[in-house]
Design brief:
The protein is of the alpha/beta class and about 220 residues long. The protein has 5 helices and 10 strands; from the N terminus they run βαβββαβββαββαβα.
Length: about 220
Amino acid sequence: MNIAFVIAIQQEIGIDFLKKCNKKNINGVVIYSIKNGQNNFYLIFSGVGKANTANTISFLINKLSVDKIINIGTCGANNKKLKYKDILLIHKAKYTDVDVTTFGYKIGQIPHEPLWFITSKKINKEILNVVNKLNFKIIPNVSLGTADSFLSNKIKNNFSIHDVDAIDMEGASCLQVANKYHIECSLIKLIADNKDGNEWKVNTLSISKIISKIISEFISQ
């Protein structure tokens, strides 16, 4: 089985984990890989944003024939109950910076697509098992909003964020493309800031160690 971990940028996992991987270049795209038994594990950096993520997921499916995709990385809190370092198991994700209501769609809905993209129940069970083995606490059934901008106070009123617990820049796009190809996909997000990005740089180093442990446990199973 081919299993891929998609991370936006290298700072979210750190160099120590990457040293354990084999590194190769496929059509200009850098892939990190580890083999365990019959399973091939791939790690790829998508870059920030929806378009970069969609391109990465398409590459993984078409070039590496992946069977499962897990997007893991940092996000911002929109629900006041969420705090720094909380690990979130995403149930559903939508876009928060889309408005084509002129054509009869809901705020956040892409034409001819559902409003919400749903994660894989099968992978979610695996994620719960892995995180429990590590004795980490994980918050299930979280709703995620995806946009191409950090939601600063200046612009957040123009975004549809009232019904999402957390904000990122990749999740919904990852699910949208994977679902089109009927590929199992799930999202793990860790709170790094309060959605405006001001705390991200300071907090990500510590979070990257947690992400490394979660991925390492997946591979070792």
